[in-house]
């Protein structure tokens, strides 16, 4: 009787442990699926005034990334941003300007390709421009050497030594640009595909699924291995 109770207790413990490992695997699988579903940022076609969703006294809010914004002001500096990658995978040098807003703030703006920088000579520092574009986070990796006329990456922190104005975090990838004379026509840069998660985290969850379920299989297999060992010894 005691032997049967002992075997029943051992079997129950094995089932409980195996069930726990299977449940942990299922939980990790759901986490991975949720992450995959939320990886692509939903397209929002509404145009927001820049100052409504971002400010120059802090980091760019995550919920503002990828939004289409509008603002106006004067271009006060131009830079070359080499070896940039657009939404279609094309690498080129970009024409980047520092736009001073109507207030004492400024933001980096990607106007187009560097080779087209002289296409609109009528736009000078005194010209008021109105722009719309996609608000993107600053870059962390350098693409080239940083100089007075060239940006190693699209990051307003590189300009803190050249201006006393407050600088917005991130930059605007222009979709349209206009002056009092009308719309400015030039080749624009394709917006890169935005993702809200790190792909490695998805596969990390999948690896946990495999580990937990393997442990469940090992727990279920151990009693049979023990019995086989006892038969061989006898």
Description:
- The protein has 234 residues and is α+β, with helices and mostly antiparallel strands.
- It folds into two domains: 14-38 and 197-233; 47-183, Nucleic acid-binding proteins (OB fold (Dihydrolipoamide Acetyltransferase, E2P)), CATH 2.40.50.140.
- 32% of the residues lie in helices and 28% in strands.
- The chain has three helices and seven strands.
- A five-stranded mixed barrel has the order 2-3-4-6-5.
- Helix 1 (2-37) runs antiparallel to helix 3 (199-233).
- It is elongated, with a radius of gyration of 29 Å.
- The mean pLDDT is 85.
Task: Summarize the topology.
Layout: H1 2-37, E1 47-49, H2 50-53, E2 68-85, E3 91-101, E4 105-113, E5 129-136, E6 166-179, E7 182-183, H3 199-233
Helix pairs in contact: 1-3
Summarize this, please?
With 234 residues, the chain is of the alpha+beta class.
């Amino acid at each position: 009787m005691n032997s049967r109770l002992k075997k029943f207790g051992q079997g129950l413990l094995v089932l409980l442990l195996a069930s726990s490992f299977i449940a942990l695997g299922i939980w990790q699988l759901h986490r991975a699926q949720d992450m995959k579903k939320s990886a692509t940022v939903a397209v929002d076609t509404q145009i927001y005034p820049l100052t409504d969703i971002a400010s120059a006294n802090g980091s760019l809010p995550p919920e503002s990334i990828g939004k289409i914004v509008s603002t106006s002001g004067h271009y006060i500096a131009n830079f070359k941003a080499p070896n940039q990658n657009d939404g279609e995978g094309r690498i080129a040098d970009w024409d980047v300007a520092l736009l001073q807003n109507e207030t004492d703030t400024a933001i980096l703006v990607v106007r187009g390709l560097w080779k087209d920088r002289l296409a609109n000579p009528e736009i000078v520092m005194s010209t008021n421009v109105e722009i719309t574009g996609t608000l993107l986070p600053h870059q962390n990796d350098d693409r080239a050497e940083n100089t007075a006329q060239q940006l190693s990456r699209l990051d307003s922190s590189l300009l803190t030594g050249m201006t006393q104005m407050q600088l917005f975090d991130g930059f605007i990838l222009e979709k349209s640009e206009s002056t009092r004379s009308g719309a400015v026509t030039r080749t624009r840069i394709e917006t890169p595909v935005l993702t809200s998660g790190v792909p490695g985290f998805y596969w990390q969850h999948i690896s946990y699924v495999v580990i937990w379920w393997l442990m469940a299989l090992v727990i279920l297999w151990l009693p049979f291995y023990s019995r086989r060992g006892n038969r061989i010894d006898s």
